[in-house]
Design a protein that fits this description.
This protein is mainly α. It contains 18 helices and no strands.
Amino acid sequence: MNLIKGQLGNNMDNKKTKMVTLLSLLAFMANGDNYAAAPLLIKISEDLGISLQSAAYSVTAYMLAFGAFTLIFGPLSDRFGKVRVINIAAFGTAIFSILGGFAFNLQSLIIFRAFNGAFGAGIFPVTLALVGQSFNNKERQGALGKVMGTMFLGGAVATAIGGTISYFGSWRMVYIIYGVGELIAAIIIMKTLERDKAVVSKFNLISAYKVPFSNFRFMRLVTVIFFVGFTVFGSFTYSGKLIQQLTGYSVLQVGFILSSFGLGTVLGGRIAPKMKSIIKKGYYVIAGIIGFTGLFILSYSSNIVILSFGLFIFGLAFISLQTSLLSTAQAKLPKMAGTAMSLASFNMFVGGALGTAINGNLILKNGISSIYFNASFIILIIGIIAEILILGFEMRQKQLKA
């Protein structure tokens, strides 16, 4: 009997491992598609004859569409199953990524990237919800860390891949190649992953959000996630321009330097659960201090080695904060994982869109370094607030168990 239980346990572990691996692959491609814009904006602005700030509107369009449609895909995944929604979204984002490579002016680029972001909304939050509901509270942050670490590695490696392809060929090929990669990942997932069951019997968008909106503590937490998006996405979008301005390097060299951020997210995804278990009280404050240090370096240094280090610990701090915030958000609404992750992702990407737009204007007024100086203090404050909120939540959880 014990042998049979052991075999069943191993089979379940293998299924979970396969699921995490496949979803990480898709997230790697889809987030790479998104983050490739960082080194491409310079080339896009030159090719389409527009300003850098105008080219950045395609990033804002992606993030706003992502945030808006996130609110729809989350409840849909709770009603029709998360794997089914991920399948549809993967095919959609692949198609519009390829179309983005054929954009002929700013308007067409914004439209294609907006649709890309809309379908991307069915990948990121639903993937995190599927992974989150498949693991217990103890294992959840580690599993989320692996997916998110790979996701943001894809984003940062995309800066190197995008920079290389753009340098030797065209920025258009970057979106086309990523679209083809997403298409391949979508086919593999469609043929491999078992469909999960619906957790609600009816799809009602209004009633789906009554529970989270009436949960004050949950909404406080996703507001913190909004400012994480504002700080991280709103500043990283312009990091390619910052590095080029400080060093005079080509888009190819800049792309490789920006990969330091992704390496930091991968390491953070792997060590964050262990860090949290060792540090316990003060974990979020320390993550905020690390983020402050990384962003402060980016605002003041011009040494390429120090800049790379700043990007690395910036990525480490981001993933350390974000995986724990998302894990806690799911723990607050365990029976509505899709809806919970929808609101969390909505706040993260709308925050990123607003940060990108505001920082674009600040660059014109105060210079590009100013946005990293501002962001360094914001992420430090985020760490302190997260510490207060989550420490209170964990204390209440212990009291309930007692």
